[in-house]
Write a structure and sequence with these properties.
This protein is an alpha+beta fold. The protein is built from 14 helices and 20 strands. The chain has helices at residues 12-23, 48-57, 60-66, 98-112, 153-157, 217-220, 226-232, 237-241, 271-274, 283-299, 304-335, 341-353, 355-365, 380-392; strands spanning 4-8, 27-31, 43-46, 68-69, 72-76, 82-87, 94-97, 115-117, 122-126, 130-133, 138-140, 143-146, 161-177, 185-191, 194-200, 205-213, 248-258, 262-263, 266-268, 406-408. Strands 5, 6, 13, 14, 15, 16, 17 and 20 form an 8-stranded mixed sheet that branches. A 6-stranded mixed sheet has the order 8-2-1-12-19-18. A 3-stranded antiparallel sheet has the order 3-7-4. Helix 10 (283-299) runs antiparallel to helix 11. The protein is globular and about 60 Å long. The two termini are 36 Å apart.
């Protein structure tokens, strides 16, 4: 089946959808509200679920060339204890510049024939397959994809959201010059309710995410309050001194829950459907994977409405679990009492070493994807069995943690 796909939003999710639909033979038009599509942010973690799509688009080698292949993922607490240390050298885990991933997706979508319109502000959608614009025009198609972010007009015009809320913390994301002796490690440092993650993202830059409670104004200030952060992480002073306002951006962590991602011929994807804090590095990853699965489902179906419903049924449980775990991780970080910090370290260490919970964590850390087979992780049958077992396991206790500041949409 083929037709015309209309996509609201030219971020990573929208461009991934555009390239995916073009790869499956659909005409594609993308509508972006700004005068130039751009990705706001610094670095990004690209994991196995993203690479499976990038393989299909012919972009994996270029992403790996531009970014840095990470061989160890670690967490270090305020006492200097190594809480978690995972050897990921047998996985495809690359940290790269967010602008590079966005630019490559745009380039591939346009090479495939997608048309990107700028300065087109979408204000709503029709379940029959149409987008409405602020200038009064209406464009109709066979499928409409809302990839217009956490404040999605497509989603809200169709009353799909059940709940949108902000968590109690946020992240300042920065790029700093890479040190000459910096190893290809991703390390998250803890200090009470504060966290700092560091990973090289290119030959030139290192990516840092700097996370603290929103109620602590010095923790969320941009330009960065360097004296504040150096006091809590004195061993990272060299990194903080290198931070510049030009390469810094701060966002409060938000979560979106929807009753459904589909209404008629309209589907939402990315932050519009499943916004989440970035603790598993999967906000963009699950969006890229879901966009490909959507295009594939529609391309091989006879009925668009039914195909989109089946796509949600297949993709949503995995993404919902990633969202639950990363949100629970977030709440445990900023709500955990500082006097009990050693207990938190012990808890996370125990989870990582537990045979079932550790394997489960890693599965969803990859976005609900087993480790890649060519790197020595069992036969295809063994990997499929492991994926089925993990997907069907009852939710871990972490998901029961309450989040903060929930706001009912209706």
């Amino acid at each position: 089946m083929s037709g015309k796909a209309l996509i609201a939003g030219a971020g990573i999710a929208g461009l991934a959808a555009a390239a995916a639909f073009r790869m499956h033979g659909w005409d594609v038009e993308v509508f972006e509200r700004s005068d130039e599509p751009r990705e706001i942010g610094a670095g990004i973690y690209v994991k196995e679920n993203s690479f499976q799509v990038l393989d299909e688009l012919g972009l994996s080698d270029e992403i790996a060339r531009r970014g840095v292949r990470i061989d160890a993922a670690r967490i270090v607490d305020e006492s200097g204890r190594l809480v978690i240390s995972r050897d990921v050298s047998q996985e495809r885990l690359v940290v790269t510049l967010r602008s590079d991933l966005h630019g490559l997706l745009r380039e591939r979508a346009e090479q495939l024939g997608a048309v990107i319109h700028t300065n087109r502000r979408v204000i709503g959608a029709d379940a029959k397959g149409a987008l409405y614009f602020d200038d009064g025009t209406v464009v109709s198609g066979d499928v409409v994809v809302g990839a217009d972010g956490v404040h999605s007009r497509v989603r809200d015009s169709l009353d799909l959201a059940r709940m949108k809320y902000s968590l109690g913390d946020g992240a300042t994301r920065v790029l700093v010059p890479r040190l000459a002796d910096e190893l290809p490690h991703s390390t998250e440092h803890w200090s009470g309710q504060l966290r700092v993650g560091i990973a090289p993202a290119s030959d030139e830059y290192t990516y840092m995410f700097i996370i603290g409670p929103e109620k602590e104004r010095r923790a969320t200030r941009v330009p960065l309050d360097k004296s504040y952060w150096k006091r809590h992480f004195p061993h990272l002073a060299e990194y903080f001194d290198a931070v510049t306002p030009e390469l810094s951006i701060h966002h409060r962590h938000s979560v979106v829950h929807c009753d459904t991602w589909v209404k008629g011929r309209v589907a939402i994807v990315g932050d519009a459907a499943h916004a989440q804090p970035p603790n598993l590095g999967q906000g963009a990853g699950v969006a890229i994977a879901a966009a490909w699965e959507m295009a594939e489902s529609v391309a091989y179906a006879d009925d668009v409405n039914e195909a989109l419903r089946e796509w949600e049924t297949t993709a949503r449980p995995r993404i919902d679990m990633v969202q639950r775990i990363t949100t629970a991780y977030d709440a445990l970080s900023y709500k955990w009492p500082r006097p009990l910090a050693p207990l938190r370290s012990s808890l996370f260490s125990a989870i990582s070493k537990h045979r079932v919970l550790g394997e489960r964590w890693e599965f969803y850390w990859r976005g609900g994807t087993p480790a890649p087979g060519p790197l020595g992780n069992g036969t295809p049958a063994e990997r499929a069995a492991r994926a089925a077992r993990l997907a069907s396991t009852e939710a871990a206790p972490l998901e029961s943690v309450e989040t903060a500041e929930a706001v009912e949409v209706r």
